[in-house]
Every structure is written in C-alpha cells, then in structure tokens.
Amino acid sequence: APAPPPARHLFSDPAEVEALRGNLLAWYDRCKRDLPWRALAVTEPDADRRGYAVWVSEIMLQQTQVATVIDYYNRWMQKWPTLQALAQASLEEVNELWAGLGYYSRGKRLQEAARKVVSELAGRMPRTAEDLQKLLPGVGRYTAGAIASISYGQATGVVDGNVIRVLCRLRCIGADSSSPAVIDQLWDMANVLVDRSRPGDFNQALMELGATVCVPKAPLCGECPVKQHCQSWRRVEKELAFASQKLFGKPSPVPDVEDCGVGDCPLCPPATEPWDSSLGVTNFPRKAAKKPPRAMRTATCVLERRGCHGASEYLIVQRPSSGLLAGLWEFPSLPLAQDLQEEKEKEELAHHLQAWTGRPVAAKGLQFIGEVIHIFSHIHQTYVVYSLHLDGDVTLDPALSPSRWVTEDEFHASAVSTAMKKVLKAHEKQRRKESSPVKGSKRKREAKAQGAGGT
Ligand code: SF4
Ligand code: ZN
C-alpha cells in the first residue's frame, strides 16, 4: 500500500476534528442561507420525498448558481412534487422547465432515474450513499453522499468544488486538485471530518463556507469560523508577523513556513511552482491547466412567415435525442467546416433549408444578421445567423425530425436553449434597425457581427 501522506496534510488529532466540527456547525446555525430545499429536508416526514427533493436540488446546483436554481427548483417541485409525478412527465415537459438552466442532459437523466425508482424499486429511494450511486443512473459519488447525509443522516462525507477549495486551504494541499490521487485524499478527509450526529448539516456547512467565506478570489479569512484550524491562514499570519518584526528591526527567528518537509510530497505544491507569498491562502487549490474549448461554427436560419393573425411565426426543429442539447428545439441549423467562405456557407445553408421548406431556397435570398457566440462547457460555439422570410403555406415533412411553427411567445415557452434565445434577439435587433433607417452606406458584415449581441 502507498505510504500515508505527511501528517501536516491530514486531520489526525481527534480533539482538533471535534473542535473544527463544533466551530463550523455553530457558524452554520447562525449564518446559513435560507434555501427551499433545506427547509424541506428538515420538515418533510416522507423519507422518499425528502430524498427526491435533495436529489433535484443537488442536480440543479451542479454547475449552476444557487440564486438561479431557487426559482427552477420551486417550479419543478410544484409541477412534480413526487418521484411518481416526475416519472409520468414527458421529456418535452422536462426540457421546457429546464430551458435556460444549461447542461440539459441533467434534467433528462433525473427523469430517467425517477422512472427507474418507480418501476424497479417500488418508488423507494435507496437509503445509503453506496446504494444510491449503484442503483440510480446519473447519481455520482458526490450526489449520493449529499442525498444520504442530508436526507437520511448517513455519516458520509461529500467533496464538491467548494469542499475541494476549503480542504486544500485548511491543509495546504498544493498538488493538482483534479488528479485522482488528490481527489481520493480529499474524500478520505471529508469522511474523517463529517460530524457523526449531524452529517447533513456538516456537509452543507462545509460547502456553505466555500460558497460564502472561503471563496475563490478574496476569501474572508477574518470572518472564518475555522481559521484556527487552517494551515494556509497560519502560514500567512506567520509571514505577516515576521515582516512586521523585521520592519521594526526586532530580531526574530525565520518563520517556519516550509512545506511539510517531506521530499517529493505528493500533496505539496510542485517544486517548480512553490508557495507564492503574494497569493496568500489563494495559493490553494491548484489545478492543471484546462484544455481550451473546441471552436465550432454553425449556420442557423430564422425562418419567418406571417401567421394567420398577422403575427410573425418562426420555424423550430427538434435536435436528436442524444448528444449536445439533446431533444431541445432550435432554428434549422447546420454545423460548418472551419474557414468556409461566406458564399459557400450560404449555399450550404440554403441547401439544408430546402429539406425543411420543401422548395428550392436561393442562397442570395438569405439575409445575414450577425454572429452570436455562446460558450458551452467545452465548446466555443459561433452561430452565424441568417434570416429568410417565406411567403405562402409551407407543408412540414413528417418524415424529417419534428418541427413546428411558433409565435414569439410560444418560442420562449418551448424547450429552446439560451443560445437560440440570443439568436432570436439578434434577429429582432436587426429588424428594429431596419424599421428605423440609419444614414450611411451598407453595413459591413463585421460591423453587424459586433452588434448581434454576442457574449
Ligand atoms: Fe478559507 Fe481563510 Fe477560512 Fe482558511 S481561514 S478556511 S483560507 S476562509
Ligand atoms: Zn507535503
């Protein structure tokens, strides 16, 4: 077995662990944010519903801010208050409610897992982290630990981004915090630390500390309830004391700010990137450089017609049921090869649109609107936006992917991604410009691209 890590990086003193738990929980009781899923986890007598509610909140909170999640969570729980209700929902309804929250496969997987609990587990949520992870698709180690500790009082730790940051700072862990070896250490640490009588509160307190006090850029160490247990804070304090003594010319010993003293320590910062005094506690955590997102270009066309009441209607089509933005609706779109000439882009899009309109589409009829940029987690997507007005009736071909005409209000109520909302916004902006004529010559493509609301 590998040698245990140096003691400095661990919580090996039971008295210290006890004190840390007490300080953290007392702070949490005083300062915790009032969040709807927290209230329900305490007051709901039905254990399955309690587990379900925590599960929904945890899935929504992955990659999304608390402030955004609250409204989505409330609407979700109102619409599907139980696992049984969610199991009966359609994917379309789930996507509609999820629209705007991002990472759409989360909603889809949540619903698939709910169906499984209802059909294979008689509607009963597994009660331990191990079973939750084993039996529920899409439930990983973190979510399983959160549900089991918060809903069922299992004394099991959790490690998410906030916990990683807090633990790395508490114990001066400067090795790559995304490496499996470090992540394993952090899980062990979280399991040692978790309070045996209030595990759910303890886990939430640790995450809350990371979200509100031990924040990434400017942590509020002065207000931190566990600073006396924090190795990196101590190191900063020692350095400050040393600097001020030096300033007043007092003789003082060189501060003990070495790393843990173990050569090639697997948890200390690498020798090539040692502790940087100017960064203080934000020396930790450290991550290996991220891969840059992949660049993609997609041509998309706002196909517009006059509806029966005179209002504009737009054609939207459904994406395939797997992959990026699975099952969501969008304007007819076509991924483009990089560095394609503008004329060629238009020709390809015109050809693609023919399938939807059932009639020849001339490339020169496509009006360029602008470019809209949207960043997905791993893709830097540029939508090259065109528009086309269609006269007369268009018969939609049922052999193709599902498609439908929608008014603007219907568009916003549909399961469309945030990126497509930006595309429609760019289109509307262009329309407004056209209806209030501006002096000057024809705008250049670049100028339009800038004004198209890219972010
Ligand atoms: Fe984080 Fe500062 Fe508290 Fe340490 S003292 S845990 S760095 S907020
Ligand atoms: Zn070390």
TrEMBL record:
Protein EC: 3.2.2.31
Species this protein is from: Sinosuthora webbiana
Molecular-function GO term, any one: oxidized purine DNA binding
Name of this protein: Adenine DNA glycosylase
UniProt keyword annotations, A-Z: 4Fe-4S, DNA damage, DNA repair, Glycosidase, Hydrolase, Iron, Iron-sulfur, Metal-binding, Mitochondrion, Nucleus
PANTHER family listed in its UniProt record: ADENINE DNA GLYCOSYLASE
Subcellular location(s) per record: Mitochondrion; Nucleus
Catalytic activity reported: Hydrolyzes free adenine bases from 7,8-dihydro-8-oxoguanine:adenine mismatched double-stranded DNA, leaving an apurinic site
Keyword Hydrolase recorded: yes
Gene of this entry: Mutyh
Segments for region (Disordered): 423-455
